[in-house]
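User: Some background: our group keeps a shared notebook of sequences we're curious about, and every so often someone picks one and asks for a predicted structure to add to the entry. Today it's my turn. The entry only has the sequence so far, pasted here. Could you supply the structure so I can complete it?
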Amino acid sequence: MDTLEFNGQTYQVDAEGFLLDYTQWDANWVEMVRIKEDLDEITEDHEEVLRLLRAYHQERGLPPRVRDMTAVTGFKLKYIYELFPSGPGKGACRMAGLPKPEGCA
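Assistant: Of course. Here's the predicted structure to add to the notebook entry:
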């Protein structure tokens, strides 16, 4: 278990930087991941993906598999990669405060 600190907040993360406690997720976390992902801004589409991923996780207790992410979000996989250049699992799920999806390299 590792600890990340940003803007006075402390987060418990796994070795790959995914939140260990889903309830620690907040706007500060999103901003920290945005900076690490080298994104200029968080758009409405980013926020929509984050909302949908979190809702999926709350409903099912696990993050969506990468191949299911397009069905959940309604966005094409190529567009999700444009929004989250490090990928739907590493980028989108990490930013949403979810665990690493099954099958994510």
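Suggested note for the entry: Residues 2-95 form a domain with the Arc Repressor Mutant, subunit A fold (CATH 1.10.10.370). The chain has five helices and two strands.
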